[in-house]
């Protein structure tokens, strides 16, 4: 059964109540045309986007993403609240004799706590370039960072142990992520570059305008980056003659990454794999121009358990490059902050010239292990912060009865946005997530995340040219849309897309290219009122 809402125009219903629409009462052999019914998609009136986990108390609150799932048990709620505390914990340089549980930051890092990149459990603030400035240097307030890797000689088709599972190739003596911050003595030239990490990163913006057929003009911006002063060649820039830094070589690929919202993640992991894979259409068999692909990635949980093929479906990250909330959360803890943990017990820069020199210079006071050889945080911290990210409630939809919102829902389907932003799933009723037992709160929930969790080529305009496992340099995972209407209520400075370039949802739509280009063109050809209706629908999510 096609579960959709059908609405007949009021004038037609009125005609059915009269002997004749003309009102004359004369018997006439006239065929009255029956208008096409207005069909609304099934999700039009849905409010509980996260099923029974949904919070209806978020409203227009600045903490709309920070509510625990409402169906947690008392024991689970206590674990969630412990994770909340840990999520906001700021770490310090080792050693910290007064609070040893807080030390271990870095020695190079991007931020000192989880909340800095996921402000109020949502997106980070987009860096602003002030009037009169050409660019801004990333500092302690930046929630954006650069992924880095070496260009491969060939496209990786299938991952196995021989090719490191198609993982990005680390930059020698740097790794796979650029850390722009450091502890005091992180660098050999620390007296001149105090609290600087592997390199300085500067951001600027390029702009272009887009004009609708009705003459409306929209200015779009794209962030550009410049990397300078790398630790292995202090003072060098890309313009320096005879470049010596490993970081500044021509075959080094770089791409911006913004922090993502962290609510509803457990529900996404609880979607059965087969329900995701049914939307794969790698060769575009249905000829709609959309060829969804799955990313298969290295799974640290499976590897730690001794699995001989530690590969899983990627679900999280901008390129679906992580398989579970556990890998995503604890990988970020070790990577973004520099805090080793049971899943990632080694520093992310272990074995690099920077780390070796730092240990020697500081007398091995910050090795990433405590006096007993244990990582900087243990299972209690790790399990709680992972559970917190798994069980943040999805906010309920708002204003669903408003005519503009309803029309926007209809147009969203008409534009074929739902080909990638798949509206709904029902989560599985058994099994585990991240190698651990799944909370009953996540089981059997009818949810409306509006994503297929798959990869799509979004065109050159959004491409960063950096592959990630099986994802190409122009492919991105479809972002879930639930809660997106509260993004700038939670953080007014937040942007959209992987690098925060879009200040509005309209701008985000206009950046869609590649497989989404047909839908983007169709959106541009709508009337101004219809475009506003689409945005009204998105704001209701």
Automatic annotation (TrEMBL):
Residues in Cytochrome c domain copies: 403-541
SUPFAM superfamilies: Cytochrome c
Domain of life: Bacteria
Gene3D superfamilies: Cytochrome c-like domain
A Pfam family per the record: DHOR
This protein's UniProt keywords: Heme, Iron, Metal-binding
This protein's name: Di-heme oxidoredictase family protein
Provenance organism: Shewanella vaxholmensis
Organism placement in taxonomy: Bacteria, Pseudomonadati, Pseudomonadota, Gammaproteobacteria, Alteromonadales
């Amino acid at each position: 059964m096609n579960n959709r809402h059908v609405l007949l125009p009021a004038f037609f219903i009125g005609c059915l109540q009269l002997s004749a629409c003309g009102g004359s009462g004369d018997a006439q052999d006239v065929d009255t045309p029956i208008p096409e019914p207005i069909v609304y998609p099934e999700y039009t009136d849905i409010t509980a986007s996260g099923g029974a986990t949904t919070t209806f108390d978020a409203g227009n609150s600045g903490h709309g993403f920070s509510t625990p799932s409402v169906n947690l048990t008392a024991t689970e709620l206590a674990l969630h609240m412990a994770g909340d505390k840990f999520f906001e914990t700021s770490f310090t340089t080792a050693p910290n004799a007064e609070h040893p549980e807080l030390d271990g930051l870095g020695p190079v890092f991007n931020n000192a706590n989880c909340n800095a990149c996921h402000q109020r459990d949502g997106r980070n603030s987009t860096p602003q370039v002030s009037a009169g400035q050409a660019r801004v240097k990333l500092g302690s307030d930046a929630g954006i960072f650069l992924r880095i890797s070496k260009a491969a000689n060939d496209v990786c088709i299938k991952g196995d142990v021989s090719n490191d599972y198609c993982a990005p190739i680390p930059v020698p003596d740097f790794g796979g992520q650029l850390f722009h911050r450091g502890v005091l003595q992180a660098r050999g030239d620390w007296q001149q570059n105090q609290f600087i990490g592997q390199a300085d990163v500067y951001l600027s913006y390029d702009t272009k305008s887009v004009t609708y057929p009705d003459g409306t003009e929209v200015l779009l911006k794209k962030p550009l980056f410049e990397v300078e002063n790398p630790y292995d060649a202090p003072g060098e820039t890309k313009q320096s003659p005879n470049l010596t830094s490993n970081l500044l070589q021509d075959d080094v690929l770089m791409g911006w990454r913004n922090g993502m919202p962290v609510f509803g993640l457990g529900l996404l992991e609880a979607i059965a794999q087969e329900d995701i894979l049914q939307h794969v259409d790698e060769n575009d068999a249905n000829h709609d121009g959309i060829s969804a692909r799955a990313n298969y990635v290295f799974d640290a949980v499976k590897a730690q358990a001794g699995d001989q093929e530690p590969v899983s479906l990627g679900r999280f990250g901008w390129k679906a490059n992580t398989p579970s909330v556990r890998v995503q959360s604890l990988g970020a803890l070790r990577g973004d902050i520099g805090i080793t943990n049971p899943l990632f017990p080694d520093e992310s820069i272990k074995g690099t010239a920077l780390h070796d020199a730092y240990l020697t210079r500081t007398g091995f006071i910050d090795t990433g292990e405590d006096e007993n050889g244990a990582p900087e945080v243990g299972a209690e911290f790790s399990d709680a912060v992972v559970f917190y990210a798994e069980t943040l409630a999805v906010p309920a939809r708002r204003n669903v009865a408003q005519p503009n919102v309803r029309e926007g829902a209809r147009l969203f389907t008409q534009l074929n946005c739902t080909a990638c932003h798949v509206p709904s799933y029902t989560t599985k009723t058994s099994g585990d997530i991240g190698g651990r037992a799944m909370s009953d709160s996540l089981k059997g929930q009818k949810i409306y995340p509006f994503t297929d969790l798959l990869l799509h080529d979004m065109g050159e305009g959004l491409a960063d040219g950096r592959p990630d496992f099986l994802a190409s340099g122009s492919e991105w995972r479809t972002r879930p849309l639930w809660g997106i209407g509260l993004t700038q209520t939670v953080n007014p400075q937040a942007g959209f897309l992987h690098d925060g370039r879009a200040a509005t949802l309209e701008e985000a739509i206009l950046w869609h290219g590649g497989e989404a280009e047909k839908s983007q063109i169709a959106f541009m050809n709508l009337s101004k009122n219809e475009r506003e209706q689409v945005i009204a629908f998105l704001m209701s999510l």
